[in-house]
Design a protein that fits this description.
- By secondary structure, this protein is of the alpha/beta class.
- The chain has two domains: about 140 residues, Serine Threonine Protein Phosphatase 5, Tetratricopeptide repeat, CATH 1.25.40.10; about 140 residues, Phosphatidylinositol 3-kinase Catalytic Subunit, Chain A, domain 1 (Ubiquitin-like (UB roll), Roll), CATH 3.10.20.
- About 50% of the residues lie in helices and about 10% in strands.
- A hairpin with a 4-residue loop joins strand 5 and strand 6.
- It is elongated and about 110 Å long.
- The N and C termini lie far apart (about 135 Å).
- The N terminus is likely disordered.
- It comes from Oncorhynchus tshawytscha (Chinook salmon).
Length: about 400
């Protein structure tokens, strides 16, 4: 039999051999700068988020912890407490669906600890709030269970949470129903009474605003329909955006072309407000005012008149625009009311129609080859006799009205 001294010597010799071998062989599973975060995340204590499904083969430590949490042999109070903590962890991860499952499982334990039950109810309500779940927001779906020894405060807390969530989501009718459920249990609860008054106030205001919006919408629609009828009655032709008149082999004297364009007349043709902020309208005297665009191709400039009365002539506006104060881009001072030529373009026939500046707008808009695009008539303005004017007109077919 070997002595203790001899055993110690043998043991030391074995350790020396092991240390020598350890120095020579590198540990294959060691952490590195690249993988240490990934490896730490596999350890339950350091995990940032838990996997959606816990596979005992892949995550034996997690499976063991979960079995402890859901151990049915433990007292109900401990099980409910563990499920509450589990729900809180999910809540911190913003995994509200799983948090609700955990809180609900805790409530189903029907433990005798009223404080734990109250926290489970309140936390579940908060999780539902973050999800905005309609099921939770329906008080008629609330099934109140009375656990042995549980205070009414737990149910009141749930009702208060439900009402508060509905208020945040502006579901005032549901908030009132939650308040009523809570007040059945405690008619003098101050918070529920205040919340009910606030919800009722907001509900009445929302209903009032909805009525006003409906009346306004109906009025605007009526005005638009009246405006459309007035446009159609004047024989003015509107084009929808990107719409062009249908080609026809008929002559200009044939009225069927404008008739076909009129068949497509609807509210979509009055959309200049989208681009300019202005739209055609009828004043109290029944006079129509149009947003009109003047184009100066020689200088690549434009002028916009937001309300051009149909009874006004072009000369009325040109006199104001090119009177004493001339635009800065007219460096040669060529643009004067008596020195200008005015045209509208027929995109279908690729021709220009010359307009007499003294003619009222309505007369031009009623011309059979004039089509109002996007709710805003546009006109080309050139300096009479200028080199640019002669070149511009030489490249296009020009028709004098």
């Amino acid at each position: 039999m070997a002595s203790l001294s001899q055993q110690g010597d043998d043991s030391d010799d074995g350790m020396d051999d092991f240390m020598e071998k350890f120095k020579k062989e590198k540990y294959s599973n060691a952490f590195s700068e690249k993988n240490w975060e990934e490896e730490f995340d596999k350890v339950p204590m350091f995990m940032k988020t838990a996997p959606d499904e816990i596979d005992p083969m892949k995550h034996p430590e997690l499976a063991a912890i979960q079995s402890i949490i859901h151990d049915d042999d433990r007292p109900l109070e401990e099980q409910a407490e563990s499920l509450k903590d589990e729900g809180n962890d999910y809540f911190k991860e913003k995994n509200y669906k799983k948090a609700i499952v955990s809180y609900t499982a805790g409530l189903k334990k029907n433990c005798s600890d009223s404080n734990v039950n109250a926290i489970l109810l309140t936390n579940r309500a908060a999780a539902h709030f973050h999800l905005g779940t309609d099921l939770f927001l329906e008080p008629t779906h609330l099934k109140i269970s009375y656990w042995s020894g549980m205070f009414v405060a737990a149910t009141l807390s749930s009702c208060l949470a439900g009402a508060s969530c509905c208020m945040e989501l502006k579901k005032y009718t549901d908030a009132l129903l939650w308040c009523e459920e809570g007040l059945k249990l405690q008619p003098t609860d101050k918070k529920l009474l205040e919340l009910r008054a606030t919800a009722d106030k907001h509900k009445r205001a929302a209903e009032r605003d909805a009525r006003k919006a409906k009346v306004k919408e109906k009025k605007e629609l009526s005005e638009r329909e009246a405006l459309l009828a007035a446009i159609k009655g004047r024989g003015i032709k509107l084009l929808k955006p990107k719409q062009r008149p249908k080609r026809s082999s008929d002559s200009d004297d044939d009225n069927r072309g404008p008739s076909r364009a009129m068949a497509g007349l609807d509210l979509d043709g009055l959309c200049s407000v989208e681009a300019t902020g202005a739209t055609v309208f009828l004043d109290e005297q029944g006079v129509m005012h149009w947003p009109v665009l003047f184009l100066y191709p020689e200088h690549q400039q434009t002028d916009f008149i937001s309300a051009f009365s149909e009874s006004s002539s072009f000369l009325d506006h040109l006199t104001l625009m090119f009177g004493e104060e001339l635009p800065p881009w007219d460096t040669n001072r060529k643009y004067s009311p008596q020195n200008l030529q005015l045209f509208f373009e027929d995109h279908e026939k690729e021709s220009l129609y010359q307009v007499n500046p003294e003619t009222p707008l309505i007369k031009i808009l009623q011309h059979k080859r004039c089509f109002v695009k996007a709710g805003s008539p546009s006109f080309v303005i050139l300096v009479n006799g200028s080199p640019f004017c002669e070149k511009f007109l030489s490249e296009r077919k020009t028709i004098r009205l």
